[in-house]
Hints:
With 746 residues, the protein is an alpha+beta fold. Helix content is 22%, strand content 39%. Helix 4 crosses helix 13 and helix 8 (157-173) packs across helix 9.
Amino acid sequence: MMKRRINAVERESNPAFFCVCRRPGLCLLLLVAALLNASSAPAAPRNPPKVGLVLSGGGARGAAHIGVLKVFEREGIPIDCIAGTSFGALVGGLYALGYKAAEIEQIFTKEGWTSVFSNQPDMSLAPLLAQVRARYQGELYFRGWILELPGGLLAGQRLVEILDRLTTERTIAAGFDFDKLVIPFRAVATDLVSGNRYVFRDGSMTDSIRASIAAPPLFTPVEKDGMLLADGGLVDNLPTDVARDMGADIVIAVDVTSPLLEKEQIKTFIDVLDQSIGLQMQHSVESNRKLANLVLRPDLKQYTGIDYTGISQIIQIGADEAEKQLPALKSLLAGVPGRPSRPLVMGVTPTIASVSFEGLKAIPATQLRNAVKARAGQPLDINVLEKDLSRLYATSLFDQVDFHLAPAGNNAYSLTYTLREYPLYTLGAAIRYDPDYGLVALGEVRARQLFHTPSTLTISSQFGGLDSDFARLQYVPFPQLPFFYLAPEVHLDRREYLDIQNETMVDKFTNRQIGGQLMVGTVFKRSEIEAGYQVDHASITGGTAPNRQEGAAKLRGLRFNLNHNTLDAQLFPARGTLLSARIDEREKMFGSDFSFTKYALDFRRYFPVSKKSTVQIYFSAGHERGSVPFYERFYLGGFNVSDGGPRHLIGFGFDELPAKQMGIAAIAYRYQWLTHPLGFVNSGYLTGYFNAASVSDRATTPYDFNLYQGGGAELAFNTLIGPMRFAGGWGEGGRYNFYFTFGPAF
């Protein structure tokens, strides 16, 4: 009955339907025709159409995206979604979070790109024992006896910290959903395991950008859900297809992909690698350009992907291209209305529900207590978290450090620090050349976390024109008291000394000392204090009277050391203090052949006076009393950076001024005139010096001090294989000396 009633209705409403359906063959033909007609008919346009912006990868060339966005903002160009790869993900992600183009420009132009592309932590936060890494030109890592090579030249820690600071609070406000940002956003990465594209739609904005920008072999890949994610440009450098998947009806693409090299430009293995990657991405880029309604291609032929010193100029070139394309852009978007802004609503500051660590294997969480200041129940302060990351990374126990936040209800988040431990066994190496000692090499093995404590064993060998070998165990007997340690050490040192009279070398001798010490020490913030017993046997070869000693002399007694270091970098620091004080008390009551006391103090302070210039002041003082052997005097003169060399006195010769009482005062002004991130020479410095010294070679009063003055200038370069220094100095009495050093101080 019901079926008949429906058929009746159909017949009444559509008589043709009833007539046709009585002929099944004709009915089928008409139905197929209707379906074909429907599929070929144009889809009704979205009202208003959705506009997607696609930003390609291209390294530093990607700064052109900022210039394009500045023009788009001024003209009110609507943007409904953004898809970005690599540097395009970096710019696009910040813009999607609500940063204006001018704000992004300021971030990029004020950022020190040399520090961004560096593995060096903030040394002002590093434990004193960890600061020795600054003198290595290279390190090898071992897990057990297995050599482990890094997945890239840079871990990208500094970049992670910057991204966390810029993105965390805004990502929280969006509920970690990229569709709920000011502008919906996607970042593209490549899974190195499967070779597939991976598109970030939610989660940590830091992770998405860091993965998308991880260009091999520069950056290490990002681990996520069993994947190893690297630069999205490997599979999709111009993700117009992603924008279409987001529902974009109109796609505007900005393509800053680096062009392929010409044959004559392919000279080095780096060029070959660059060309190989370029060939791989070229096909997808050409294909994806066809999915865009309009492609902007800024004229960047004079810039490469590593020209980070040209960021301002690249931004302007991007703006110029947008200006040139404005007529086509306005024609494309004719009738498309502007969009009202959709600001992120920043709610009440969330709190920390819990604090935990992920990735710890050999290192107990209790060992990190002093490095982490965030606590459960506290407001979630991104500045506190950023400092925590810096301190954790500065321990040199981890090659990657970050944090993740998980909602825990009631506007609270569970905070997890994600850590990747360095291998516990390392081999560090360095070489240095200067005219004073010739070629000197350093090899140093370090084993950490011994006895399931923060204890460290260091075995060091320095050989060539200067010998210094030692084995030292810094043993922490009570893990609950990590600031207290015992430090037994054995050492062997050999150093040649010159006897200079009236600027002429009249004699030389070699001091060879073998011995050991047992120190008790404590660490307090940035200071280290040690006291203990030391024994040495000193043998002198060469030399004539008074620079001779028959047989080996026993030097035994007490030693006190104080070290304080807050320098932000061990090489070319801009700020901080370096203080070293030492007292040696050698007495016959301890079995020493000589009884004497030796005090030494060195103090350096660095003050930044601008972004590129630094003032340094330096004071050094030494006092000896008693029966001091000639080889235990202070030596001044020259500009040698060796830890075992004489104290600096520019304008004077190496070892020129021996003294039992001495004082030095110096001031220097340093200007950084060259910055070239990722270049072989990444920075250059010009420094002017003035110094004065008061010296006496008497151990008793009256001391009869003599005053010496000098000055000079230094041209220094920081290169990928170590620092290089050229200096000249003028000293009292018409002295002139030229100095050259290649390699780090050790």
